[in-house]
From TrEMBL:
TM annotation in the entry: 251-273
Native species: Ilex paraguariensis
Protein name in UniProt: 4-coumarate--CoA ligase
GO biological process, one term: phenylpropanoid metabolic process
Entry's family note: Belongs to the ATP-dependent AMP-binding enzyme family.
Length: 554
């Protein structure tokens, strides 16, 4: 337990303190630097390590050493400063996974500017909304994605390509330079250096909301530093070189925290796949003798279902740990995996964008075999279980909303004081929107969601966004979207639709209508037509009634 908690009567088994109804982490606390004038890039680059290769491009085999990474960061930082980028400016990074992704992030953050990332699968409409909200002054992107920026007229830096590789477009983009040119430039010794403090904003990642309005989560340099310390301690990465396979999107908090940030401080090697492909992932594990494989549950399911074929074709003997996030794993899946891959341990994690990728975890196979758990609280993290109706803080084995407090909890939502106040209270407690209980041994179990997000392959899909789009269809009177359970992907969006009188609208037409307007992971994949959508007397949608109806025949 942390020193400041030493005078509290904390149950060593559960971590619960009756005097303040707070659960404390049973993990060994991690040390956090006391220097207030410390940015995340300086903190990471100052770590001594024994590794040589930082990143490998799985497709091309291109390698970047740690020395090359920090030299490139210095050069790009200098170039950005000469372009007028200053502390507080927002820079947009629109790119698939790349060995250059961390270089852009750390160059921006070292200036005190703020990096905002976005899913490259998103549509022009979705990207435009984030641009309007975050107001970036510069964009880093690849040539293939330039058309998605539309008529934003933002200055663009192209990543890793020459200017003549741009696709044809009626809109002439404002290309100012390439990342390659910035990396090859000698750093200026006279660039403007503003004081960056650990409380300054570093990242602006967008988290799906139940209202359909995506909110920008501001995380500080101190949030990221605490995340790095917790990650290094969890994986014991100072005990020798390790090789990670990166299929998790770097634009997401999971990928950004682990691959673009924490592992740079560890000396580990990261093999980067630009997007998920099962065959390429397995080839990379075999070729580079990977030891760690972070993934989401649907990939784990595929590894189990195709194990016999996989083991005949690929050598996975180097693999030591699977790191699963997105949803707790059940007994059938865990034991099914261990039966096929007996030398590989399963570790799990629970976190949010708002908690900078840190929350709870299982750090051993023994802990993961507490089937269905999200794990023990991460180091330095505190929790409360609160009755959603009365606001009463509850003891062990009682279900309520999980609230978290600790050094990785966000600063707040960008430009949205109302949303910040409703999610983060004055004492620093974050409302997670997850109904949970904590058992006698301190393990967290997620029972349900207060928030109504659909989890498709680890991606968050807000049903309200899809409902709003459905209601713009000229032949739809009313609509509701629910999560439909699926073993392969977790959940997918299903729509209940009320046709307008006289309409013979088909389910395929409904699905096509939505598919043209949203990223692929948000597509509606099942439609049912009903006479009316169930609502309570005040007009609130009774989504749980529709979920019960949809799953009653499973």
């Amino acid at each position: 337990m942390a020193e400041q908690n030493s005078n509290l009567m904390i149950d060593p088994r559960s971590g619960f303190c009756k005097s303040n109804s707070t659960f404390y982490s049973k993990r060994q606390p991690v040390a956090l630097p006391s220097n207030e004038s410390l940015d995340i890039t300086t903190f990471i680059s100052s770590h001594a390590h024994h590794g040589k290769t930082a990143f490998i491009d799985a497709t091309t085999g291109h390698r970047l050493s740690f020395t090359e990474i920090w030299r490139a960061v210095d050069s790009v930082t200098s170039s950005l400063s000469e372009m007028g980028i200053r502390k507080g400016h927002v820079i947009l990074l629109l790119s698939p996974n790349s060995i250059f992704f961390p270089i852009v992030c750390h160059s921006v953050m070292s200036l005190g500017a703020i990096i905002t990332t976005i899913n490259p699968l998103n549509t022009h409409r979705e990207i435009s909304k984030q641009i309007a909200d975050s107001k970036p002054v510069l964009v880093f992107t690849i040539p293939q994605l330039v058309p998605k920026l539309g008529d934003s007229n933002l200055p663009i830096v192209l990543i890793g390509h020459e200017l003549n590789t741009l696709p044809n477009s009626t809109i002439k983009p404002r290309i100012v330079t390439t990342l390659e040119a910035m990396m090859n430039k000698e750093p200026s010794q006279s660039r403007v250096k503003e004081r960056v403090s650990e409380d300054d904003a570093a990242t602006l990642l967008y988290s799906s909301g139940t209202t359909g309005v995506s909110k920008g989560v501001l995380s500080s340099h101190s949030n990221l530093i605490a995340m790095v310390q917790a990650t290094l301690g969890r994986f014991r990465l100072d005990e020798g070189e390790q090789t990670f396979i990166c299929t998790i999107p770097m634009f997401h908090i999971y990928g950004l925290a682990v691959f673009a940030t924490a592992l740079l401080a560890s000396g580990s090697t990261v093999v980067v796949l630009s997007k998920f492909d099962m065959d390429k992932m397995l080839v990379a594990i075999d070729k580079y003798s990977a030891t760690y494989l972070p993934l989401v549950p649907p990939i784990l399911v595929a590894l189990v279902n195709n194990a016999d074929h996989i083991k005949k074709k690929y050598n996975l003997s180097s693999l030591r740990s699977i790191l699963s996030g997105g949803a707790p794993l059940g007994k059938e899946l865990i034991e099914g995996f261990l039966g096929k891959y007996p030398t590989v341990a399963i570790l799990q994690g629970y976190a949010m964008t708002e908690s900078t990728g840190i929350g709870a975890s299982t750090d051993s196979l023994e802990e993961s075999r507490r089937y269905g758990t999200a794990g023990l609280l991460s180091p330095n993290m505190e929790a409360k279980i609160v009755d959603p109706d009365s606001g009463e803080a509850l003891p062990v084995n009682r279900t309520g909303e999980l609230r978290l407090r600790g050094p990785t909890i966000m600063k707040g939502y960008f430009g949205n004081e109302e949303a910040t106040a409703s999610t983060l209270d004055s004492n620093g407690w974050l409302r997670t929107g997850d109904l949970c209980y904590i058992d006698d041994d301190g393990f967290i179990f997620v029972v349900d969601r207060l928030k109504e997000l659909i989890k498709y392959k680890g991606y968050q899909v807000p049903p309200a966004e899809l409902e709003a789009l459905l209601l713009t269809h000229p032949e739809i009177d009313d609509a509701a979207v629910i999560p439909f359970p699926d073993k392969e992907v977790g959940q997918y969006p299903m729509a209940y639709v009320v046709r307008k009188t006289g309409s013979d609208l088909s389910d395929s037409s409904v699905m096509d209508f939505i598919a043209k307007q949203v990223a692929p992971y948000k597509k509606i994949r099942r439609v049912a037509f009903v006479a009316s959508i169930p609502k309570n007397p005040s007009g609130k949608l009774l989504r749980k009634d529709l979920i019960k109806l949809a799953t009653s025949k499973l």
